[in-house]
Amino acid sequence: MKATHPDHDTHWKELIEKLFWSTLAFFLPKLYAIADQSKGVEFLDKELHKLIADKFKKGNTRKDKLAKIFLKNGKEHYVLIHFEVQVKFDKDFLRRMFVYFYRIFDKREENITALVIYTGDHVPPGHDRFEYEFMGTELVYKFNTFLVRDADEATLLADDNPVALAVLAAKYLNETDSTEDLRRQYKMKLIKLTRERGWADKEITAILQFINLMIILSDKQEIKFVDDVKTELLEMNKDTVPPHVRKHQEFMLDIIMHTLPNTIETFPLIGREVFKLLKESGDWPQFLKEAMSEEEVAEQVREEVKEEVAEQVREEVMKNKLKVTKQLLKVSDLSAEQIADIQELPLDVVLRLKKEIS
User: Fold this and answer.
1) pLDDT tens-digit series, residues 143-190
2) What are phi and psi of 202, to 5 degrees?
3) Number of domains the chain is built from
4) Which residues pair with 267 in a beta bridge?
5) Same domain (yes/no): 70, 167
6) Could you list the residue range(s) of the whole structural domain that residue 84 is in?
7) Element counts in the chain: helices (H) and strands (E)
8) pLDDT tens sequence across 41-65
9) Cβ-count burial 267-290 (b if 16+ within 10 Å, e if not)
């Protein structure tokens, strides 16, 4: 069975990039009210990484967001959004938030707002501040926080903001950690809610992708979910469903089918080309049900396909990393050690690349 724990940081980051203004409206409504959306938003993540890479060489800073927006009065404003999955207490996290703040402030000297979204059930004490005291010198740095565990389900259901549904998905994920069948039911419930909202295609796409990638199911439950989706969205009387409604349903189905997590693992008997053909035919869920009964063949092919795909992915990722590393060595003033941390590469590899281009 594949792992059912999603990459919270990555999926939240992607969602907020796609739906930034909805994110601002949901988590920071007062700031949203005075923001000038007509001037857009600029993400300064790379600049953030440069500011703090030397301080947190062992930490992962690539999942944090730094956004620059303009207010209606014409002034600039910086929004630091940090996504924290707090499984256990990290004694350095609160201090790290303060370091983020003072380094950005020292560089920009502009208005800064910080937000931490705690997506897990375990939240550290004093989760909204960093406190320091020594010999009469005291400091309290307080920032905005949102706790998914404390969000009210009824309030989220009544909120038409698509980010509210993303929060609900995270809440359902926490509540079904050991209940696979209920998790599948909740996932289908979220799909139905998305279908009922009158959102734009961009919003629907972002939320469906988030739901699909966050709420991961076991192989058997994923197949049941696919059948549920097809029944809900397509198996209707064509005479009673208006063409524009059916087109919308097919649009949603396409998004769902193309964002199923770990697709090759979910359907272990199918190679990539066969999988593509079966998916396009529309008959593949029933075929998979029949194929899954051949346990010995399934297990053998599962491992072969999994390893082949994993190797190809590793090779492609490494090629891209080396290419970007060479560019950083050429155009940035970062040290080899800083670049090795940012790119998650061994220092000797970066030094070898540096020697090649010198």
Assistant:
1) 999 999 999 999 999 999 999 999 999 999 888 877 888 988 898 899
2) -60, -45
3) 2
4) none
5) yes
6) 8-218
7) 17, 7
8) 888 877 777 777 656 544 455 567 8
9) bbbbeeeebeebbeeeebbeebee
